[in-house]
Amino acid sequence: VRVADLPTPCLVVDTATLEQNIATMGEAWPGRTLRPHVKAFKSTAMARHLAAAGHDALCGATARELLGLAGAGLGEDLLLANELVDPRRLAALAACGARVTVAVDSGETVDAAARAGIREVLVDVDVGCIRCGAAPDDAPRVAERARRAGLEVRGVMGYEGHLMMAPPEEKAQKVAEAMAVLARVHEQVGGEVVSGGGTGTAAVNRWVTELQAGSYTLMDADYGRAGLPFRQALHLLTTVISRNPGGWAVSDGGLKALGMDHGNPVMDGYRLLFCSDEHTTFMAEEGGTLPAVGERVRITPSHVDPTVAYHEWLYLASGEDVVDRWEVDLRNW
Amino acid sequence: VRVADLPTPCLVVDTATLEQNIATMGEAWPGRTLRPHVKAFKSTAMARHLAAAGHDALCGATARELLGLAGAGLGEDLLLANELVDPRRLAALAACGARVTVAVDSGETVDAAARAGIREVLVDVDVGCIRCGAAPDDAPRVAERARRAGLEVRGVMGYEGHLMMAPPEEKAQKVAEAMAVLARVHEQVGGEVVSGGGTGTAAVNRWVTELQAGSYTLMDADYGRAGLPFRQALHLLTTVISRNPGGWAVSDGGLKALGMDHGNPVMDGYRLLFCSDEHTTFMAEEGGTLPAVGERVRITPSHVDPTVAYHEWLYLASGEDVVDRWEVDLRNW
Known about the structure:
Oligomer: homodimer
Number of helices of chain A: 10
Largest interface: A-B, 63 and 63 residues
Low-confidence stretches of chain A: none
Strand content of chain A: 25-35%
Mean pLDDT of chain A: 98
């Protein structure tokens, strides 16, 4: 199958770029110092590929992601890098046969995990992201409560998500400050694991024992502007379905194929006007020409995670040849 | 099952409000004067419900939507209200056993339809939306080309999508102007059908013979601000998973559960700060209190179509009882 024969809209992954991104990250964070975050790509096949590259301790944001990995035999060391209080899902995780560690940041999350039969936890610490995580002063009490409930506290977790897109000249210093908080809590909480970080801070986070990152594999337009050593491996392939004498054309991928929270996606060589449910309207750049109806045009998503979550497949391409397709089997809940 | 027992995040539909919305629209646009647009809800079950209410001529934006409707026995009169040049999908539509009409706006779309064995078309006319549709002066030539290719031209289509959210005091006049263009082209093109409109212009569009609308069934926060006679029937149910002494809480629905192109969703009783991939961070309103970890909170999506496209199920609730669930079986491509 050729890329030109794929039904559109669809996500196409350039395998050479993907491999380069994996190699670049793997040099800096080899083996289990990297804990690939499957939330970015939601595909067991991609997870298996990363595990084969040595990164066989994985993390996810939903029970479904972890249960899917466990079912696929990728359950060596799975971290739910998120809080969960649903007793049925926690029980399913406890019974799935994999080694499962869950994040806890409160008495409620500790109690829910213990009641469901979860055995290991990380204490999630608020390092400034305005999201989950116990306040640093409360974290030791959460750890104590977990140990009293019979849970093994493997260490701490702290996600500096608010710094992923910090200006390069400030990023290292701000990450150092956030991680100083995490290191201080870690001293009090104990355990061997300090988990955190992401694609945007991989180059400057020297404190975590394991980096949680997933977007580096595929990348997106937003991370593409952040001066990172990873390259754009993913695009949305679309077909031009209309061209107007007013000077615009329309392709067949829109809001249901693209995560839009980071703003409009990007089209190389064209000026994207707007996306609607099933369409992207665009114009030629100054001096350029519009493609004909039936031609293919590529769109670079602005945010990879909510983009992939719309799709059933990632089509892997080597040049113009489709060499494989990976199911996005870990989406939904 | 009680709503409180549903796994989160999930979409919950209030059946009483849904029925009221359907009744309100059905009074103004009875039977086949309304052509429900399944792109808004992507569910065969909802389409069947609307067909049972008399609206058994349906439209969609993708081949997958129409093929699903045809397979479910809802193929009395299906319109692909969108351009399509993919020969395999067009052939599948031509062979699906349903009455299928497709929109065409160019020689390429006419030729692709004719070659695939499609029998009936509408000429799609640009009425100002900056998207698909032949320029009004070109539309008669598109119709002529279709007839020469052996296609039955059932009439015209023109979507005034740019006016759905026009200020109420201008909307009627602007719709009249857009529809005057469509009426003029219709005189030249012929056929019995003038198809167009939407939820936002249902009250002021007096020109179409059939209104294409879908969002009125479920509604969203954006349409909720437009002064329409339809009420919010859909919300995203989430569970609070974290609460921070800094004054915020976090629930478990985020960017992969909510279409974000119309901006942030809305939380009644709380101040929503931001959504991230799996989370919504929010604060109490002035004088209010934050919910406890484990409590449920409701989020009203800002844009229904790309929200529903993230989900597998619509859970139908009467008060706190879940009375049914409808699969979102027409999503993807």
